[in-house]
């Protein structure tokens, strides 16, 4: 693809909004674009990429399998664009200091942006460097001094670091719209789930550790792995495509559940969990890191 053919970020933002809100009209409204302009923008994006992103019908439009993949890649592009703009803003306002943060995927994708926006109310010139890791890697970064503060989603407080609970989350069982479990009238039991091959995150992910720990405690063994994937987005796309069921953070699937592209299956299992800030050094945090934890706790309450 030549430089002149790079897709516009506005078109990618619109495509993500369509995925999140379930239709072109709702997606267009969310980004402040008239629907005729939105339809033209999506058509140009399809031509530029050379793939069909939407299946259009009289009842509306839905994303193709290729469209689902492009949406998740587009999220990465938009996140990188926000990082660029935030970094440029920090360079334009010298003297604001720097904070290095490592966060697990669920926190980084769904909570940290709002926390940082709240932090910048008091620290307008602050430069923040964010690294997205799984929970085990975040703890390793904190212990290794590669970041000032971490946010993790494991089932228990990690060893060797200071911790503070900032928010709560829960894991939910999700399937694609055509999965047989969408028609069941009873909850999935722990034994049944432990016998079911699941789409899962990689070892070290807080989501996987929480599920495995609970199933081992209740049944004596974890569920078999159907396919192991390295991000919430990849698992979500695979479930939507009908590859199998998965247990994911409610935060990571809320938009898909609202749009009907994923369906929640009731579980006879409590998979609530706490999200924690982690750091080393004195028990009491000070400075900008303490302010960020305070913002996170306030927004999570």
UniProtKB/TrEMBL annotation:
What InterPro entries is this protein classified in?
A: LysR_HTH_N, LysR_subst-bd, WH-like_DNA-bd_sf, WH_DNA-bd_sf
Which keywords has UniProt assigned to this entry? DNA-binding, Transcription, Transcription regulation
PANTHER family from the xrefs? HTH-TYPE TRANSCRIPTIONAL REGULATOR (PTHR30126), HTH-TYPE TRANSCRIPTIONAL REGULATOR CYSL (PTHR30126:SF39)
> What name does the UniProt record give this protein?
LysR family transcriptional regulator
**Residue ranges constituting the HTH lysR-type domain according to the UniProt record:** 7-64
Pfam families xref list: HTH_1, LysR_substrate
Asked if the keyword Nucleus belongs to this entry, the reply reads no
Family affiliation: Belongs to the LysR transcriptional regulatory family.
Taxonomic classification, please? Bacteria, Bacillati, Actinomycetota, Actinomycetes, Propionibacteriales
What Gene3D superfamilies does the record tag this protein with? Periplasmic binding protein-like II, Winged helix-like DNA-binding domain superfamily/Winged helix DNA-binding domain
């Amino acid at each position: 693809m030549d430089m002149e053919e790079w897709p516009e970020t506005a078109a990618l933002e619109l495509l993500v909004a369509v995925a999140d809100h379930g239709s072109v009209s709702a997606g267009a409204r969310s980004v402040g674009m008239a629907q005729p302009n939105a339809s033209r923008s999506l058509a140009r994006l399809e031509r530029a990429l050379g793939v069909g992103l939407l299946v259009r019908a009289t009842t509306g439009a839905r994303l193709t399998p290729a469209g689902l993949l492009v949406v998740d890649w587009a999220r990465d592009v938009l996140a990188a664009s926000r990082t660029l703009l935030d970094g440029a803003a920090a360079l334009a306002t010298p003297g604001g200091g720097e904070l290095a943060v490592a966060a697990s995927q669920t926190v980084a994708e769904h909570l940290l942006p709002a926390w940082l926006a709240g932090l910048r109310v008091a620290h307008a010139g602050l430069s923040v460097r964010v690294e997205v890791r799984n929970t085990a890697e975040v703890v390793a970064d904190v212990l290794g001094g590669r970041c000032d503060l971490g946010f993790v989603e494991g089932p228990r407080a990690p060893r060797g670091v200071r911790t503070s609970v900032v928010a709560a989350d829960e894991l939910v069982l999700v399937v694609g719209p055509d999965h047989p479990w969408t028609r069941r009238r009873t909850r999935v039991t722990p034994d049944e789930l432990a016998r079911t091959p699941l789409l899962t995150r990689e070892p070290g992910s807080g989501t996987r550790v929480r599920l495995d720990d609970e199933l081992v405690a209740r049944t004596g063994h974890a569920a078999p792995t159907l396919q192991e994937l390295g991000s919430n987005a990849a698992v979500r796309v695979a479930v939507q495509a009908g590859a199998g069921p998965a247990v994911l953070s409610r935060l990571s699937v809320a938009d898909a559940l609202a749009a009907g592209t994923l369906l929640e299956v009731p579980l006879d299992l409590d998979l609530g969990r706490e999200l924690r800030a982690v750091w080393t050094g004195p028990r009491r945090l000070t400075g900008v890191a303490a302010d960020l934890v305070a913002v996170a706790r306030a927004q999570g309450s």
